[in-house]
Amino acid sequence: MSDDNSEITGSDDVDGTSGFSTDFEDADLGDEESNQGLFDDLLSGEPIFENKEVLRPSYTPHELPHRSDQINKMATILVAALRGETPSNILIYGKTGTGKTASAKFVSKELESTSQKYSVPCDVEYINCEVTDTQYRVLAQLANKFIEKNKGRIDDRIDELESLRDATEEYDATADDDAHAGDDPTDRTAEETASDPFDFVSSEETESRSAVSSGTESSAESGDSPAETRGSSDPASPPVTGTEPGDADGPGRDGETAIDATPQEPAHPLESTPFGTRAEVDDRIAELEEDKESFEEVPMTGWPTDRVYSVFFDAVDYDERVVVIMLDEIDKLVEKSGDDTLYNLSRMNSELENSRVSIIGISNDLKFTDFLDPRVKSSLGEEEIVFPPYDANQLRDILKHRSEVAFKGNALSDDVIPLCAAFAAQEHGDARRALDLLRTAGELAERSQAETIVEEHVRQAQDKIELDRVVEVVRTLPTQSKLVLFAIILLEKNGVHSINTGEVFNIYKRLCEEIDADVLTQRRVTDLISELDMLGIVNAVVVSKGRYGRTKEISLSVPLEETEAVLVSDSRLSDIDDIQPFVQARFEN
Ligand SMILES: Nc1ncnc2c1ncn2[C@@H]1O[C@H](COP(=O)(O)OP(=O)(O)OP(=O)(O)O)[C@@H](O)[C@H]1O
Questions:
Q1: Does the CB atom of residue 459 touch ligand 1 within 6 A?
Q2: Looking at ligand 1, which residue's alpha carbon is closest to its atom 13?
Q3: CA distance 410 to 347
Q4: By Cβ atoms counted within 10 A, which residue in 34, 158, 528, 584 is the most buried?
Q5: Residue 276 covered by a domain
Q6: pLDDT in tens, 311-343
């Protein structure tokens, strides 16, 4: 057995790059000799980053400079939820990277934590409609989230009720014992309390016993019966269960327990609860178990939408609470599947009995409400908050805040942040782009083992990000557009300048034949060239040829080799072999 272990240990050694060694001696030797320092050099350079994660889009910052107006406005509207009222619906607009999602998430986090602090039930649910883009999926996702929350709450309640039942059982058993024993309960109480003052159960037992003494013996004198004692208290005040305060079946337990449970008159566990007997507690537990069983999760496809809606509706209305539903990229939902979801969500409040729903819609597209039913439009846009683009100075502040945590002390030269901010400000004031630039510049500096990030790294980062964008756009083009682009690339590669549509079409046709693709008409190919122009991949300008009319002159606006490499990585286009002679043959014709 120990041999086996030594083998495993030896082979698991991270330094053992020469392969598996079977005993410790080999492994030790391997440490020295087989390690060729692949990672050592990289590790030895002073790392530029202190914490790179804070520059990633997934990181939610604790501070959002230049967004306090928008954040305060959101908070002013949503505070209604903490008062148990329904907040107005909110529409948030702004271009990409202007901090809409980050601000909305920040506010909702605050809202949820404050609601917990003051025990006001309020739930916020976030949905990204770019991913969840049909009514079915939105409702199903919401239904399942609320079912999960409901189950969690039911479990908590059951736990509390079980503790209450146990405490009652114990209390009753003790009451019986004492009634038969005829001891002096007061003496025993004192002894037990002294023996372990911090033991909750024993002290509760103690209290129970003294309660028995006062409830049975002394009450005979005072005329109080235990039932009367119980009944006399406020039904809304808390049970003495020893469990954490929660939302069992009546709020506001804490202080009152302390006041009620005087040493002389310790409370019966069911006092101040809506339950008269242990059996009633058991019935309530059974009822909750049944509720829990009755929730049926919605499958991700297959049900009629009205069934999904009704499950969602019941799940939301199961509890008294305010629900805030945050629909990010809401325009994508409307674009893909119309405004039915928003219509259904916005009319829910008139039918809900226990809960209230409020919607926050977030969109990049200022015009999407033009496509909404007027009723949905007015209900959704009760409040509108605009997120303007950041200017270069604001981006500078944002980057400064983040860079303090992200980088080592002297890793940034002075001109880096202003340059990143300036580049991103040109791109419609996009904070995401600014952060990407800064992170990529840092990575490039780290890769070249530089000690500081300088202006040149930022410029390289700008080129790299641009190229990454191009690669992504080209990679996801439909095959026909790829063929048109390939034709343009082949022409450029062969030194053809001022390429016209006819030339592109001829090469395109040959490429289609080569890979057995349908050949589109020249008019359609012209449209595809215009689309490539709009994506910034080619530049197509209309030039007048005098009496020969007008024609389009096309040139590539992206790096040729990298773009070609992306195209041939497509399995269909990679079938085109020996491209060079093929194009030349075309020109010799
Ligand atoms: N004021 C700010 N302070 C710090 N970071 C910010 C600020 N505004 C935006 N960011 C950061 O910029 C990035 C983009 O922000 P966010 O996702 O909130 O933009 P958005 O407006 O929702 O964009 P999109 O519409 O593309 O989703 C995130 O990493 C975010 O943390």
A1: no
A2: 432
A3: 56
A4: 528
A5: no
A6: 999 999 998 999 999 999 999 999 888 888 999
Task: Show the domain range for 465.
Answer: 392-472
Beta bridge partners of 541: 553
Atom of ligand 1 nearest to the CA of 397: 3
| Tally of structural domains, the chain | 3
427 and 485 assigned to the same domain:
no
Q: What is the pTM of this model?
A: 0.69
Residue nearest to atom 6 of ligand 1 (CA): 99
Return the structure tokens found at 69.
């107006």
- Mutation to probe ligand 1, out of 56, 93, 98 (largest number of atoms < 8 A from CB): 98
**Shortest-distance Cα residue to atom 15 of ligand 1:** 99
Q: Do residues 7 and 33 share a domain?
A: yes
Among candidates 557, 552, 562, 508, which has minimal Cα distance to 537?
Answer: 557
Q: Considering the domain boundaries, does residue 319 fall inside one?
A: no
> Which atom number of ligand 1 is nearest to the Cα of residue 61?
31
Closest to 150 (Cα-Cα) out of 317, 330, 308, 14: 317
Q: State ipTM.
A: 0.98
Burial zone of 37 (CB within 10 Å; 0-12 exposed, 13-18 middle, 19+ buried): exposed
**In this structure, are residues 92 and 100 in contact, taking their beta carbons and an 8 Å threshold?**
yes
